[in-house]
Amino acid sequence: MQYIYKLVFTGTTKFYIGQTENVETRFRTHIERLQRNRHHNVHLQRWFNKNLLTIASIEVLASFEDKTTCDEFEEFCITETWDRNFNVSKKSGGGDLISYHPNREQFVEKCRENLLKRIAENPPKPKFGKDNPNYRHGKQTKGAIESALCSECGEVKVSYVGARCKGCLKIIQSQTRKGENNKFYGKKHSQETRCKLSERMKEGYATGKFEVANAHKVVVDGVVFNSKTQCAKYLKTSVSTIQNRVENKKFSNYFIYQEDLHKNLPVYKAEVAI
Asked: Are the C-beta atoms of 63 and 74 separated by less than 8 Å?
C-alpha cells in the first residue's frame, strides 16, 4: 500500500507533501534528518534551521494500491499547492531537484566551477593533429607513401618510405644465408637421403599433394589440375601450350579454375584418367 502524506509544522502554514509505504517510519526519518541538518530537501532544512520549526504532525491524504496512480495523485497535490508547500520538485519521488531549487543559480555556478577545475587538473587529450593517438595520415603524407621508392635501388615503388622492394629484399636475404650464416654450411645430404627427397617430391607433384608456388589451377575436360605444369606433364605437352589453349576460345574444354564454378569437380590424381 502506498500513502500520500502531508507534514504539518508549527509556526508556519506551509507544509511538505510526500509518499511512503510506512507512515510512522517516514515521520521519524523526517524528524531525525531535520534535527541532524541532513534533510534531502534543502528548502525545508533551511526554513527549519532559520525559524526553529518543529513538526506538529503527519497527515495521510490518500492511499493507493497502484504505484502509478499514487505517483499521479502526489504530483497533483504538489502542483495544486505549489505556493504553499516546501517541495522543491513537482515530480513524484523528487524528480528534477535543480529547476526549482531555491538557490538554483548558485548551485549551477558551483557545478560549473567544479567542472572547470576538473578539466584544468586533467586536461582532455587533443582531438586533432599529430598529438591525437588516433591520428591518421593526411593527403600529403599518403601521397608521399604511395610514391615511396625502394631504399636500396631507389627505383621500384614500395608500400612505405624506407622499405625495400621484393627484388632487393630477396638479394639481402640470400646474402645473409650464404657461407657460415647458412645453418647447413659444411654439411651434405647422403646419397640415400637425396634419393628419398627426390622420390617424395616427384610423387607429391604427380599426385597433386605438392603445389607449385604461385601456380594457377586449370580445368581440362572437367578435371581440376593444381597447376599448368602438372596438366602439361599429364598431357605430355608444354606449359605454354596449356596456357595458349586456356586463353584460346576455340578450346572450350580448357579453363582457369574458379572456386564458385569448379569446386565440385574431381581433382587430378595419379589414378584419374581423362
From this structure: no
- Non-local (6+) Cβ contacts of 117 within 8 A are none
- 119, part of any domain: yes
Q: Does a structural domain hold residue 179?
A: no
d(CA 142, CA 145): 5
pTM of the model: 0.37
Q: Would residue 11 be called left, alpha or beta, if left means φ above 0 and alpha means ψ between -120 and 50 degrees?
A: left
Q: Which of 75, 108, 124 is the last residue of a domain?
A: 124
Cα gap 75→15, rounded to integer Å = 15
Q: Check: CB of residue 55 under 8 Å from CB of residue 6.
A: no
Domain count, the chain: 2
User: CATH no. for residue 73?
Assistant: 3.40.1440.10
Q: What 8-state DSSP symbol labels residue 256?
A: E
Residue with cell 579454375: 257
Find the mean pLDDT for residues 168-191. Answer: 79
Gap between the Cα atoms of 225 and 231, Å rounded: 6
Residue 160 domain flag: no
Report if residue 158 sits inside a domain.
no
Q: Which of 124, 144, 167 is the last residue of a domain?
A: 124
User: Exposed e or buried b for every residue in 149-162, given b needs 16+ CB within 10 A?
Assistant: ebebeeeeebeeee
Reading the block at residue 111, the C-alpha cell is 557545478
Of 221 and 160, the one with more pLDDT: 221
Domain limits at 41? Answer: 1-124
Rounded to 5°, angle at Cα 219 from 217 and 222: 145
Model confidence pLDDT, tens digit, residues 87-143: 887 777 654 556 656 667 787 888 788 888 888 888 776 666 666 655 666 666 666
